Amino acid sequence: MVASVGHSCEKSTDLLSQYMNYKVSGSCPDDWSLAQKLILRGCEPLPRRRCFANKKKLSRECVNCFDLAGVENQRYVKSKGKNDFLLDDVLGLGSGGIRIGFDIGGGSGTFAARMAERNVTVITNTLNVDAPFSEFVASRGLFPLYLSLDHRFPFYDNVFDLVHVSSGLDVGSKVEKLEFLMFDIDRVLRPGGLFWLDNFYCANDEKKGVLTRLIERFGYKKLKWVVGEKVDAATGKSEVYLSAVLQKPARG
């Protein structure tokens, strides 16, 4: 019988051996990028180690990830285009009030910080891709959840008033994986709760079609639905994004 937790670690024995090579009772190696690779391969939860955690270092690719005075400063309160929904507008759509939410792929935790200003508690799911996002989210007085999207959400059914997700919903070309993720999102969202899809990048019409058909299977009410284009600053090419606010139906 295959173990329900951690059995995928056996598929990455080379990386696991590196991860478990450390000095007992000493400082843990600065190997959070290695831990990230293991998690993304399904090796979670990671095995416990008998060493003391260190402060994580930023990679060169993420020097501006935590620049709260820059791009993050106006997010959710000032719109740059039709795909950017304002936070107060979305909260006004919620029936029964919005008290607790879940942000999937929340990065530096700005969404949760904005919600906290409005007395809404949000748990931020994030991984340390190129930077110690979890530590940064915690330093802002917010709750980080270090968990990959291959893992079932550790919450009971129908507990959240709102689920917010952007690039976190991008699972590549694996349609079945996206389906499992959507069912888990639906499970933790209460009837009447809001599913906010925020600027999801549609690489092509097929990808947009797959997501649209999947969402329609759940019978959600479309409160907002916008497909728009943005110009990529690096390439100068136009890219298609989907933003939506959907309300979960009550099911018998």
UniProtKB/TrEMBL annotation:
UniProt main location, coarse: membrane
UniProt superkingdom: Eukaryota
Signal peptide segment: none
UniProt record similarity statement: Belongs to the methyltransferase superfamily.
Membrane topology listed for this record: Single-pass membrane protein; Single-pass type II membrane protein
Native organism taxonomy: Eukaryota, Viridiplantae, Streptophyta, Embryophyta, Tracheophyta
Alphabetized UniProt keyword annotations: Glycoprotein, Methyltransferase, Signal-anchor, Transferase, Transmembrane
GO CC, alphabetical: endomembrane system; membrane
The protein, known as: S-adenosyl-L-methionine-dependent methyltransferase
Nucleus is among the record's keywords: no
GO biological process terms, semicolon-separated: methylation
GO molecular function per UniProt: methyltransferase activity
InterPro entries: Prob_Methyltransferase (IPR053223), Put_SAM_MeTrfase (IPR004159), SAM-dependent_MTases_sf (IPR029063)
Location of the protein in the cell: Endomembrane system; Membrane
Keyword Transmembrane: yes
